[in-house]
Amino acid sequence: MKKQTFGVIVTTRSFFPSHLVKTAREQICAKLDELGYGYVMVGEQDTQYGAVLTFDEAKTCAELFKAHRDEICGIICVLPNFGEELGVAEAIDLAGLDVPVLVQACDDDFEKLDMANRRDAFCGKISLCNNLYQRGIPFTDTTLHTCAIDSPAFTADLEKFAAVCRVVTGLRGARIAMLGARPVAFNTVRYSEKILQSHKISVQTVDMSEIIFAAQNYPDGEKVRAKEAEIRAYGSIPSYIEDFKITRQAKLCLAIEEYVDALQCQASTVQCWDSVENNYGCATCLAMSMMGEKGKPSACESDVLGAVSMLAARLAAGTAPALMDWNNNIRDDRDSCISLHCSNFPKSFFQNPEMEIECLDVLGSTLGQDKCFGACKAQVGPGPMTFVRLTTDDVRGVMKMYVGEGEFGAEPIPTKGGVANCRVPHLQELMKYICKNGYEHHVCFVRGHVADVLAEALSTYLGVEVYRHV
């Protein structure tokens, strides 16, 4: 993952003690170094104390930030004391980077409220936020209104902010490959390409016949042999699967990967049934799983917004997501359900060493098993998870999403495919929200708890209407 770099603004007010600024600069630099982030900030030789107070100092800071526009993914504002809110707001405004902004204010020491040490950052933060609000500059707050720079609370806030910046940077200008039209029966995955484009996300379409033609005519050689070896190492393949089916699958994997790469897309979605099975002779799941494992999520059934959801989850968590159906109840436990798909889940998402590469079950029963090799099957291992779904509400002309957190359970699920035992607090209320608001049956899951990151990035910075399920 590329190292993230932040623009840092430390501010002060002239009649507050200058030693607080020096300490804050040292602490924020040390903290960012410790966490492995880069930073750009004015030096002590550039402005008084290396802080931003005046309009001239705001211009100096803005010019520095503009010179590093391609590096800076977010701006961190540090208030060691009350600060000069106008100078900070002007610096951000003049720089015009349009990146996320984090506002931090330092704790006062109750035993040091004398004039030599008193901060008043508790109050100054309100003034800074007021000025940002007036200028229409969106910003992120810390968990605590004030906190020490070297505190665990601020460390967690920085890590969360870095994830917010990854999501915002990664979705703005994202390119999604749509390989094949949606299955005819799946009106549920219809969407507005124009609404997506208004959020700076574009869709690159490819007819499925081009993918099939490329796979059918892929030359034998070292690339195919290497992909065959990669497939064999990726999961357990039953002994009855003939070698030619693995070769056929390898060529399809290469054809899909090369199209997505050539289009310079960060995620994709594939018309996974039933043209490719009938006209080429295998499933697309494995190719999609392997791309997802390498950092390029791929959604089923030409679900473009599913792919966008997966990309957002990948950026937030830094791990491979999966797209599933909300599928079955579990007995009378109304806060649990089964989610599943055929599946194309990435290997690391399963966290199950028994993952098997075999044939599609449902489609195989109708199309024929001989046409359906390439499904990744296992139960998803237990652990914390986040679920998220974006959609375009075409009637209202907006993009919206729901997001929340839960757990994958360990109880075995007695059915086939890629399956997950999901526990979500207040699941019935969530299902009512999904049904009442016209969402798709597909949902993206990713390991870990990153719902707050996704909600902050999409609502504060990307103009998406967000329902945060709790």
UniProtKB/TrEMBL annotation:
Q: Which GO terms describe its molecular function?
A: L-fucose isomerase activity
SUPFAM superfamilies noted in UniProt: FucI/AraA N-terminal and middle domains
The keyword Lyase belongs to this UniProt entry's keyword annotation:
no
Q: Where is the signal peptide?
A: none
Keyword annotations from UniProtKB, A to Z: Carbohydrate metabolism, Isomerase
* Top-level taxon of the source organism: Bacteria
Tell whether Isomerase is among the UniProt keywords. Answer: yes
The L-fucose isomerase C-terminal domain covers which part of the protein? 340-467
| Gene Ontology biological-process annotations | fucose metabolic process
**InterPro entries xrefs:** Fuc_isomerase_C, Fucose_isomerase_N/cen_sf
> Mind telling me which CDD domains this protein's record contains?
L-fuc_L-ara-isomerases
Where is it found, in Gene Ontology cellular component terms?
Answer: cytoplasm
PANTHER family attached here? FUCOSE ISOMERASE, L-FUCOSE ISOMERASE C-TERMINAL DOMAIN-CONTAINING PROTEIN
Annotated protein name in UniProt: Fucose isomerase
Which species is the source of this protein? Anaerofilum hominis
